[in-house]
Amino acid sequence: MQKHLFGKTLKELQDIVSQYKLPKFTAKQIADWLYKKNISEINEMSNISKKARELLMQDYDIGLKPHVSVQSSTDGTKKYLYKTGNHFIEAAYIPTSDRATLCVSSQAGCKYACEFCMTGRQGFQANLSANEILNQIKSLPEFNTLTNIVYMGMGEPFDNLDEVLKSLEIMTSDYGFAWSPKRITVSTNGIIKGLIRYLDESKCHLAISIHTPFDDERLRIMPVQKLNPIKEVLEIIKKHNFGRQRRVSFEYIVFKDFNDSMKHADELAKLVSGFWARVNLIRFHEIPGTDLKGADEKTMEKFRDRINAKGITATIRASRGQDIDAACGLLSTKELVK
Predict the structure, then answer these.
(1) Is 146 helix (H, G, I), strand (E, B) or coil?
(2) What is the pLDDT of residues 189-224, one digit of tens each?
(3) Distance between CA atoms of 214 and 191, rounded to whole angstroms?
(4) How many whole angstroms separate alpha carbon 336 and alpha carbon 90?
(5) Distance from C-alpha of 78 to C-alpha of 320, rounded to nearest angstrom
(6) Distances in whole angstroms, Cα of residue 158 to Cα of each of 50, 80, 105, 216
(7) Active site residues
(8) pTM of this prediction?
(9) CA torsion sign, 113 to 160 to 318 to 81?
(10) pLDDT tens, 82-97?
């Protein structure tokens, strides 16, 4: 079975080159072909010797794979389906007038079973490799239009942190895509062990899913709260020096008669005070098997205004791709390998 070059860091490419006893500079040449140009075969690497290409092709291929299918929303959002091993994952392309964002997956499925999320309903199936994460980006037909990447698709990024960090290194390094870390946001339920490492090893933005400021309520809808209490998560973030180049944001799905009261707004504002941060209020798109309902627009606006009055920046996130199940919490693949 062929191994893939795409998704390898420069250090990994250097190790591969060393194994074949090729010149050290070959690793940088390979990285240029993988991340700065459009090729599908090793033989297209024209500035690498034929002998070197033949050696590489004995064990490796490029490893880029096109999407299996795509669904298009009436609002311009597109949901791409990719096959990874024996599983399927989804990525959502979300264009607006001034930017184009891709929401990528880091796992097939998710083990955390948040009550409001369809991905959690299918359980955990597999971690994605850096190759499979970056393939969602590079193989996207709209790749050249992308302005932002958010790790908010299927899975918990901090449960697959080695591969996520590797993908972030490739995206932000000079040898890779050379993107600014300010164009990338990684979202998490708040896995403390992963959070500490992510803050130290990456400069990309961070998004934390809160969804209620009260511990007992959060535990009810987010089992992750039991071992990763949100107050401990926020204490860790408070101690980190974000500066002005890195941002933390807080995700808050507003549920009718559950977390939409002014008491919740006041407690949330208190919880996130002291951060240079934004609260993103998210509409809930109802899913089977839960009593949770989405708050109406008037309630969400009142909630937003209450938080803003406390000196905290809060906005209501536009809902995109709902008609193709591409909105927040709806990504879930039903396809099975036949």
Answers:
(1) coil
(2) 999 999 999 999 999 999 999 999 999 999 999 999
(3) 18
(4) 13
(5) 10
(6) 41, 23, 12, 23
(7) 90, 328
(8) 0.94
(9) negative
(10) 999 889 999 999 999 9
Backbone angles phi, psi at 113, to 5 degrees: 55, 45
Are the C-beta atoms of 137 and 151 separated by less than 8 Å? Answer: no
Alpha carbons 229 and 216: distance in angstroms, whole number: 10
DSSP 324: G
Closest CA to 258 of 219, 217, 225, 290: 217
Summary mean pLDDT of the chain: 92
Q: What is the pLDDT of residue 324?
A: 59
Q: d(Cα 19, Cα 13) in Å, to the nearest integer? A: 10
The domains of the chain, with CATH numbers, are 3-61 (1.10.150.530), 69-324 (3.20.20.70)
Quote the strand ranges of the chain, DSSP E. Answer: 3-4, 60-61, 69-72, 78-84, 87-95, 100-103, 107-109, 124-127, 148-151, 184-188, 205-209, 248-254, 277-283, 313-316
